[in-house]
Amino acid sequence: VVYFLWALENWLCGLEIMAQIPLPIRLDIHARFSTFVAGENQVVLNHLLGISAGQRAQVLWIWGPSGSGKSHLLQALCTSENDSGRPAIYLPMKGPGLPGPGVLDGLEALDLVAIDDVEQVAGMSDWEHALFALYNELLTQEGCLLMTASRPPSVIAFSLPDLASRAAGAVVYRLEPLGEDAALVALKEHASCRGLELPDASAHYLMRHVERNMSALCGSLEKLDVASMVSQRRLTVPFIRDVLEI
């Protein structure tokens, strides 16, 4: 009974913290584990699936080039955690409107904090001290901190030595970009998830004319989804050429 009340209190506290966060962050509904094509990244996928199944892990660092799937995996795990009643938050550091480090206040009450592109705040003293404090508080609360970057923690220019040391002690995974065949499978999977029929000829055309990483390909697919809905046209090669001007 005591444990149940403690767990309930922590869960309610997590929901309260989530409600107070002033960021309009919405998880991509298409970023699910089921739509992630692992390629050579099965080990890291298995680790995150283990966390989503209830296994606890404390600090993970996932790095790799743009479009390799870092944001997809973070959002997939956050969605899975929230669906399972374990409060989680996804915080992207790249893009307009970077919030102040105060956004991290109280997040130790959550089960999972996922910080995307953490290198964007490296060298910012206020952010680094806030991250270091959150790191220590999550360890105390047995929460999980998951960070991504384009490089491993050992070469990120953190100015706070204690934070650099903590980051270096994380479980580190590198994401490998998908090969051509796997990227084609992933592209068609994302199209299917959106309810789009993407013929082979159209998929190959996109692969030849759009930057070959999943971020760029999915961005193009999103534009085509909207245009197809408005015009009620299928994703033929001429239609793709007109919409994307490629």
TrEMBL record:
<dbReference type="InterPro" id="IPR003593">
    <property type="entry name" value="AAA+_ATPase"/>
</dbReference>
<dbReference type="GO" id="GO:0006270">
    <property type="term" value="P:DNA replication initiation"/>
</dbReference>
<dbReference type="InterPro" id="IPR027417">
    <property type="entry name" value="P-loop_NTPase"/>
</dbReference>
<feature type="domain" description="AAA+ ATPase">
    <location>
        <begin position="56"/>
        <end position="178"/>
    </location>
</feature>
<dbReference type="Pfam" id="PF22688">
    <property type="entry name" value="Hda_lid"/>
</dbReference>
<dbReference type="InterPro" id="IPR055199">
    <property type="entry name" value="Hda_lid"/>
</dbReference>
<protein>
    <recommendedName>
        <fullName>AAA+ ATPase domain-containing protein</fullName>
    </recommendedName>
</protein>
<dbReference type="InterPro" id="IPR017788">
    <property type="entry name" value="Hda"/>
</dbReference>
<dbReference type="GO" id="GO:0032297">
    <property type="term" value="P:negative regulation of DNA-templated DNA replication initiation"/>
</dbReference>
